[in-house]
Specification:
- By secondary structure, the chain is an alpha+beta fold.
- It has helices spanning 4-8, 44-53, 58-62, 77-90, 93-101, 106-109; strands spanning 24-31, 36-41, 65-74, 118-121.
- It has a 4-stranded antiparallel beta sheet with strand order 2-1-3-4, with helices on both faces.
- Strand 1 and strand 2 form a beta hairpin.
């Protein structure tokens, strides 16, 4: 199965961990208890490993993640930060569930978000970061 880092960047312009520099990701994790956690990172495989190990965020220590429910690639950190804040601050749990079910409709939820600055990526249990999970 293709590694997640291979999906996230080109062969050039990569940083120390092999992910494209300047690219940020906003994600919604589905936790084992049914709750959702929203975050941002510039290195999703590393951040996922931290969340799973209980070192990623205080919330995911108490609510271990089981899947990436939704994932967006953002052109820069400012766009990613604004999107993360908008999801966390403006959407209820039910609205986040609806968004996670149709992540490609992010522009309908946040019309002020520049469409060219955000790309929806595939998520779910089949997502490549689960290839090495047991």
């Amino acid at each position: 199965m293709q590694e997640i880092s291979g999906m996230m960047g080109k062969k050039t312009g990569k940083g120390a961990r092999g992910v494209e520099k300047g690219t940020y990701y906003v994600y919604i994790l589905r936790c084992r208890d049914g709750s959702l956690y929203t975050g941002l990172t510039n290195d999703l495989p590393h951040r996922w490993a931290l969340h799973v190990s209980g070192r990623g965020a205080k919330y995911t220590r108490a609510h271990p993640p089981e899947a990436v429910a939704a994932l967006w690639r953002c052109g820069d950190k400012i766009t990613a930060s604004r999107l993360e804040y908008a999801i966390k601050a403006k959407l209820t749990h039910g609205q986040k569930e609806t968004l996670a079910a149709a992540p490609g409709r992010i522009g309908e939820w946040f019309p002020a978000l520049p469409a060219e600055a955000v790309t929806t990526l595939p998520a779910g249990k089949e997502f490549p970061i689960f290839a090495n999970q047991t």
